[in-house]
Amino acid sequence: MSVELLDTPRFHGYRVRRQIDGKTYQEYFSLKEDGRRIRGPKRATIKRKADLRDAELTRRQQQAKDRASKDVEIEGKGRVRGILFRMKTEKSGTRTPVFQIGIMSTLDNKIVNTTVSINLHGLEGAWRKAVDFYIKHKKISKRSKVYRELMAAKPSDADLRRLMARQRGRVRRRR
């Protein structure tokens, strides 16, 4: 519930606040009338209005979350929103190519992250593991068209070579 009683020198009343699609909705319900604080049944009526508005915003917030959780953005080879193709620095200082996944899970209702090593699993195997993690938490069927599109978005061997060459170039410049 996002109804909060504010009692400051500038305002006395309820504030309803929710984030929906990155936009903040914030509304105030004053408990002052003619410079005096409202008490009794009138105050209870204002509280109900604030609660009803919060319930409406909660419903809209849940709809927006449901829509966002089903969205899959595929921008091209190796460019899936939520799956990063990058170099990771190990504790030893070694740089290794990985797929890093970070998405809002509809399964756990929280943000989940994992990293899949390309050196350990190979490009094909690492991409499959990354996509499997992704579809599990987005609740996407392996028989769906979206799954086939995700699998087809795998970066190529040339993309991997370019990523590693870029990294070697950065290391040389630092010295």
Q: Can you walk through the features of this model?
A:
This protein is an alpha+beta fold and 175 residues long. The protein has two domains: 3-69; 72-174, no CATH class. Helices cover 44% and strands 33% of the residues. It has helices at residues 41-70, 118-138, 145-152, 157-174, and strands at 3-7, 12-20, 23-30, 32-33, 36-37, 74-76, 79-80, 83-89, 95-105, 110-117. The strands form four sheets. Strands 1-2-3 form a three-stranded antiparallel sheet, covered by helices on one side. Strand 9 (95-105) and strand 10 (110-117) form a beta hairpin. It is elongated and about 70 Å long.
How many extended strands? 10
Spatial gap, N to C terminus:
55 Å
Order of secondary-structure elements:
EEEEEHEEEEEHHH
Percent of residues in beta strands?
25-35%
Q: Tell me, rounded to a whole number, the average pLDDT.
A: 88
Q: Which sheet architecture does the biggest sheet show?
A: 3 strands, antiparallel
Q: Unreliable runs, pLDDT <50, ≥5 residues?
A: none
Number of helices: 4
Q: What is the 3D shape?
A: elongated
Number of structurally distinct domains? 2
